[in-house]
Amino acid sequence: MSPNSGTISRALNILSILLMLIRFFWSCLLMLHTSPSIRKRPNPITLTSMCFSAGSMYILVSYIWTQMLTMSAKRSS
Known about the structure:
This protein is mostly helical.
């Protein structure tokens, strides 16, 4: 294995995680936009819970990703 393949797979991991986060936030925005009750009068509890779930999802994904990176670094050394 060339040392270049590790950086390529790492970049692909970053791209896939970014795409997943973008899709997640996009679905949240669509849900906010299409929900009729929120369109009339924004509910702060719903907005807060959606922001909280998006933040926790981001933290979880970044934690799993760093664990995968450390495991692959241990394997390669």
